[in-house]
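Dock cobalamin; give full complex structure.
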Amino acid sequence: MLLAPRGETLMVLLITLASIIAFLAFAAAVLYWLLGTNRYGGDKPTTLQLTASAAAMRNGVLNPEAVRVVRIYFIKPSRYDDDGYVSVFRYGVQPNNTLNVLSALNEEFNRHFSASRNVHLETIIWDEICDGVISPATVRAIKEKAHEDGVELLIGLAGVQSNQYPRGRDLALQFVAEGMTTMMGGFHVSGYPDSCKFLNSVGITTIIGEAENLWGFIVEDFLKGELKPQYSVTEGIRAKTGQEDIMVPIITEAQLPQIDDRYLTRFFNPSMTPLDTSRGCPFTCSYCSVKNVMGRTMRSREPNAVVEWVRDAMRYHGIESLFLVDDDFFRSPRWEEILTGLIEVKKEYPKLSFMMQVDVDASCYANIAEGETETAKHRRSKRFTELAAAAGCYQAFVGIESLNPDNLNFATKYQNTDDRQHKMKIEESRARVINKYRRVVDNWHKVGVSVHAGYMLGFPFDGPDCGRVAAQTLKKIGFDIVSFFIMTPLPGTEDQVRYTKEGDIIDWDFNQLDSQHVTLRHPRLDTRQWMQAYKDAFTGFYSIGRAIREVLTVCGGRNLNAESRRSTLRQFCYYFFSYRQGRHPMVGGVWQIRRRDVRRAVISDDEALRFYLGGRRFGAILRGEPDGFAGAPA
Ligand code: B12
Ligand code: SF4
C-alpha cells in the first residue's frame, strides 16, 4: 500500500526533472540564437598573420641591410569603475573604430614607404575593455619583448574620451617611466588643452584632431628622433565649430578602417564592425564636442571605396552587420551613393544589415502631414528612409535628448523644436515636439526600421519626475530602444565652459564623465534625486512587463523587419540586464572580469605625476639633468 504513492512520487519527480532539463535546453537554444551563432567565424576564411620579416618580404624590402621595425601599440584605455578597478569584460559591445582606423594608417605607410625607407611598422591593437587589463607587469613585458625581438617601440593611447583620460594618463605615465615613447590622441586631448599641457610636460606627445594627414609626419619625426610635444591638423579645409574655426582633413581618399579577425572574437556579436563613412556634424548642441573637434563641415569618404570595403568585409571577414558611426549619416553629402551601392551589395549578401545615427529630419518628413504640401525636404526624407531600409538598415539612432522644448532651446538643439524663438505657449510647443518625435518613429517603422532614442536627464528645466515621465512618454510614442544619459559637462563643449564659469561643476574627476554619474550642480535636483530620475527612466522603460511582451512577441506589432525584430530583442534584453547590473549599456560589456591587483591609486594629474614618475623626475632634477621634453626615442 505504501509502495504505490512512493512510485507516483518518483514518477512526478522524474517528470519534473525532465521538464526542467527540457526547459533549460530550450532556454540555452534561445540564448544561443539570440547571442549569435557564428562566434570564431564558422567557415570564415582565416587571414595569415604576417610576421615583421614576412611583411617586409612582401613589400620587397628584404635586403642585406636590416629592416628597421617599429612596433606600434595602439591602446584604447578602459576606465575605472566605482571601486577603482579597471572595467574589463569577457565580451565588449563592439570593436573600436579608432583602433581600426589607426591600424589602417600604419598599413598605408607600409604600402607606400616601407620599401623606400627600409622601415616596417608593426601594429598591435589593445582594447583594454575586452583584451584585458594592462598591469605594470604587462608594461614591462611589452618593453622586454621588443628588446628581445630587436624592434623599436612606440605607444599610442588611442581614441581616449574624457572618462578614459585618468586610466589613459596612468598607463601613459607607466610607459614613460619605463622609457618608452608615448602619445595620446582622441576627444579628450583634442578638447581640453590643460590635459595636453600636463602630458607634454612629462614627455607625452598629444595629437589634436584627426590623424589622417598627420600620421606620416609623426612617424617620420619618430624615426628621426625628433617627435614634437604636439601635433594638430594644418592641412585640409577650414571648418566652423561652436567656437573658433579649425582645420580638418579631407577624408575622400583616406584609408578605410582595417578589420582584425582576432579582435572581432572579443565581442558579443563577432560579425559586427564599425565604419565611419563621413565626419563632422552641422548642428550646434551645446553639450556635444563633435562639432568642436571634427567641425561643422561634413566630409565624406569616397562612396565607391566605402561600398567595396563593405563587400570585402562580408567576403573576407564574415561581417554581416555594420555600425555606421557617422554622427549624422543623413547629413553626409554622399549618403545617396553609399546607400545605392549597399543595396547592390545586399543583393549579393542578403545578410547585410546596419544601424546608423541620424537626426530627426531624416524620417520626420517622409510623410506629408495634414496641411503640408510636398517640398524638397519631404522628398529627401522619403528617399532616405526607403533607400536605408532597402540597403539593410535595421535601426536608426536618433538623439532626441528631451521632451521639453525649453531644454532643447537651452541646448541650442533647435533641429528638434519648432519654436526656437519662444513664440508659442509652452503646451503648444511641447505638443509639437511630441508630435515631431511620433512622426519620426512612425515613418521609420513604416519602412520596417526600429528607432533607438538618445535621451538626457538633468537639463535645467528637468524636475524630480523627469525620468519617470520620459520613460512613459517614450514608450507611448513608440521608441523601440532608449539610451538614457546623465547630462555631463564634456570638455571642449560650450556647456563645460559655461558650467565652469558659473562654478557648477561639483566633480572634476574626469573618470566620472561617462554619462552615468552626476558631476554638476542642478537648480532643481540634488544628486540623489538626479540618480533616482535616471533609475526611474531605465526601470520604467525596460520594465519587467515590457520585457515579457517583447520576448513573447519578438518585438512584434510595430511592423519591424525580421532583422530589426531580432536585433531589437537582443538589444532590449542586454539593456534590461545591463542597467540592473549597475552599468550603462554603452559603457560596459558582457561578463565582467575583475583584476584585483590593479586598482586606481590617484585622481589628479599632480598626484599621478608624483605616484608614477615622482622619484625619477626629482632624481633627474637632483642630478642636474634637463627636465625638458622627453618624447624622443630612448
Ligand atoms: C561610435 C561612438 C561610440 C560607440 C563606440 C563604438 C566603437 N567602439 O567604435 C558607443 C555607442 C559604444 C559609444 C559609447 C560612448 N561614447 Co561615444 N562616440 C562614438 C562616436 C559617434 C564615433 C567614434 C568614432 O569612431 N569616431 C571616428 C574616429 C576615427 O575618430 P577619433 O576616435 O576621434 O580618432 C581620430 C583622432 O582623434 C585621432 N586619434 C585618436 N586617438 C589617437 C591616437 C594616436 C596615437 C594618434 C596618432 C591619433 C589619434 O586620429 C583618429 C583618426 O583620425 C563619437 C563621436 C565622433 N565623431 O568621434 C562619440 C564620442 C567619442 N562618444 C562620447 C561619449 C561621451 C561616449 C559615452 C561615455 C557615452 C555616451 N554619452 O555616448 C560612451 C563611452 C563608451 C566607451 N567605453 O567608450 C563622446 C566623447 C566626448 C569626450 N570628450 O569624452 C563623443 C565624442 C560624442 C560626443 N557627443 O561628444 N560611443
Ligand atoms: S549631439 Fe548630435 S546633432 Fe548635436 S552637435 Fe553633437 S553630433 Fe551633432
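Observed: The chain has 23 helices and 18 strands.
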